[in-house]
């Protein structure tokens, strides 16, 4: 009887501990986040976008980041179709423990853009160098635009909802 009671108690404790464990918050609408961020800067040129809802999302992601795609919950990348440095990208990781890897990968992407513009269009190099890379919760972001602070504020306000 004591063994059965002990087993029941341990089982109940295990359930309580699992229920109290840290849970990742639900993914926000990446489309809505993208639209909100892009609307915050009316100086953006015509932008093309790729995101995690595409059939070949994992292949497209390789353009943005070299982190393993199985760690990614969702992403989007908006980039200038006119050859300018403007870009807005967000990576949502499945596990917040991977956020530093996502931030580092966006910094690497930014460095690659700087190298590209050094060769391709030096007038855009400084803009790429001045881009913002940061994180909030399990979201890592890159912003290269004329109104970076407005785009960042829109990102933060959207996540605070």
Describe the structure.
The protein has 161 residues and is of the alpha+beta class. The chain has one domain. It contains six helices and five strands, in the order H-H-E-H-E-E-H-H-E-E-H. It has a five-stranded antiparallel sheet, with helices on both faces. A hairpin with a 2-residue loop joins strand 4 and strand 5. The N and C termini lie far apart (51 Å).
Outline type = globular
The side-by-side strand order for the widest beta sheet comes to 1-2-3-5-4
How many E strands? 5
Number of structural domains: 1
- SSE pattern, N- to C-terminal: HHEHEEHHEEH
Main β sheet profile: 5 strands, antiparallel
Q: What share of residues is helical?
A: 40-55%
Derived from helix and strand composition plus strand pairing, the structural class reads alpha+beta
Low-confidence stretches: 4-23
Q: Overall mean pLDDT score? A: 89
In percent terms, what proportion of residues is strand?
15-25%
Radius of gyration computed on alpha carbons: 20 Å
End-to-end distance, in Å? 51 Å
Question: What count of helical segments does DSSP give?
Answer: 6
């Amino acid at each position: 009887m004591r063994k059965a009671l002990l087993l029941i108690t341990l089982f109940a404790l295990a359930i309580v501990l699992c229920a109290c464990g840290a849970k990742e918050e639900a993914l926000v609408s990446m489309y809505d986040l993208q639209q909100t961020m892009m609307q915050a800067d009316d100086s953006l040129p015509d932008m093309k976008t790729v995101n995690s809802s595409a059939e070949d999302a994992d292949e497209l992601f390789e353009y943005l980041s070299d982190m393993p795609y199985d760690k990614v919950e969702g992403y989007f990348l908006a980039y200038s179709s006119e050859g300018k440095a403007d870009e807005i990208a967000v990576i949502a990781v499945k596990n917040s423990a991977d956020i530093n890897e996502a931030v580092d990968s966006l910094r690497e992407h930014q460095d690659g853009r700087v190298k590209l513009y050094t060769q391709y269009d030096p007038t855009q190099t400084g803009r790429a160098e001045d881009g913002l890379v940061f994180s909030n919760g399990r979201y890592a972001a890159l912003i290269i635009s004329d109104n970076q602070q407005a785009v960042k504020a829109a990102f933060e306000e959207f996540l605070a909802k």
